[in-house]
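Priority: low. Protein: AAA+ ATPase domain-containing protein. Input follows.
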Amino acid sequence: MSLPNMLSSRSRSLKTVLSAATSVAATALLIRTISNDFIPDEIRDYFSSRLRSLSNHFSSQLTIVVEEFDGLTLNQLFEATDTYLGTKITPSTRRIKVTKPEKEKQLLVTMDRDEVIVDFFQDVQFKWVLVSTKIEPPASRNHRDFNSILRSEIRSFELSFHYKHKDMALDSYLPYILQKSEAIKEERKAVKLHTIDYCKTDYWGSIKLDHPATFETLAMESELKNMVMDDLERFVKRKEFYRRVGKAWKRGYLLYGPPGTGKSSLIAAMANYLNFDIYDLDLTEVHRNSDLKGLLIGIANRSILVIEDIDCTIELQDRSSEVKPRASSENKVTLSGLLNFIDGLWSSCGDERIIIFTTNNKERLDPALLRPGRMDMHIHMSYCTPCGFKLLASNYLGISDHGLFGEIDRLIEEAEVTAAEVAGELMKSDKPEIALQGLIKFLQNKKIEAEESKACKEERITDGGERHNGKETAQDGQKRDEQDGEGQQGHENEKVSEEQETKE
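Result:
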């Protein structure tokens, strides 16, 4: 056969192969499209799982299934795997999921369902597949009942490898993924603020906490500030200590003092200092004690649980009181349920957690809430001090000294003024002289108001005492008049009797 004929024959054969391959690809694409559009997800998932089971039966591959949830709790290994595999996306990956949380600059990339990612660890190949099975949601949802809120899909990772590497996978590879994912999350992490959201899988919704408060900007006494920072540092380093003594790895703080003294700013500063998320628990949104357990399960490790204005959110009856609390159908969270929540068996379902209560009136709280082990450190947030003022002046006006500082220090010690009030006055002008003069007038007015209020109070007390004493004097005079009347009447009766005897 001549060379032109041979080239022509090979060209026709190549065209035939390409045509057949194109037809097969088009047919496969058509079948996939029809399958996605017309075959229900349940049927498609069923056949996919059966095919995988059949292939695994005749294979030397071992498969490990990592499900998203372990009962009620989120599977830490699933979350770690999702984070880790997001860094292993290759050009051969055909489908990925990309999300951008609000107020965050970085995009989060994860693998999509049915995608395959191949990873190598110590020269051993490990193949990952994300499997997702949709389930029918219930006809109706009761957002107050955790058990009625079911997931719309069941997700799991399937890890396949040669069965002879099972020990390596369990003892080295999976622990490596857990460790690596923690480093990735810590590098990416932005502090978040979580609030109750019954529509979420873990009952918490979140946004990025963009609060600028730090310990450097807090208007607190330096000694108290350093004491809090040292306590936080000691807490996060004592994992083995808590395990050795048999206590849950948690710490409680009670912040108490007048409104506007910086309790919320201190909480934000603690979160930024430790890089811990904040879970803001509004007890008025919780309808029964059992709901507290579900919320506790949804709280991540390395986090701060905050219950603000604990004395005002719900009625917490003092258990030592003889007055029994009235039954209420609207709010069934009890003091006993709250105590179990923060210090019972369920409180050990997590590590490295901080619990913070805030109140304006510490004396109203039940002593059971305040004992060590529940509220380990009580921090009094007092009125602004000269030290706090100087820090505020540095933050707001950019000055560390001024001729008016002496007079302001004297007025601050004489008048009860909060850091929020001082900051509000300093924000009224960018010029230090004008701002400080305005603050002096404000402090002088506060001092006059305090003196007038004190004088009125003393006057009311004095007037009340005089009225009380006057009432007693009138009563005593009335008694004396009655006694004198009785004595005079008796004397007259005796005189009449004597006259009658004389006549006789």
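The two ends are 185 Å apart (CA to CA). Confidence is low (pLDDT under 50) at residues 143-150, 321-325, 486-504.
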